[in-house]
Amino acid sequence: MKVGQMQILRQQIANELNYSCKFDSKHLAAALENLNKSLLADIEAHYQDPSLPYPKEDNNLLYEITASLEAAGIHNPLNKV
Q1: CA 4 remoteness from chain centre
Q2: In the predicted model, what is the mean pLDDT of residues 38-59?
Q3: Which end is more exposed in the chain, N or C (fewer Cβ atoms within 10 Å of the end residue's Cβ)?
Q4: What pTM was estimated for this model as a whole?
Q5: Which PANTHER family match (predicted)?
């Protein structure tokens, strides 16, 4: 039961962060969402056609965008392990 309550709390915090980000800075929220969608589309395209490039391990873009997305509440905390 505590795990379920913590998941609900994490989801509510993410929703509040997302709402605040969209309210305070619409352009930042839109840019982060579009960058996330484009990165995911590129990664999905790589898995469909392995000849397409994939971000290298030493590329920090995915780690940095993850931190920015979490700070803006544009993520699903229930999918995290």
Answers
A1: 22
A2: 86
A3: C
A4: 0.74
A5: WASH COMPLEX SUBUNIT 5
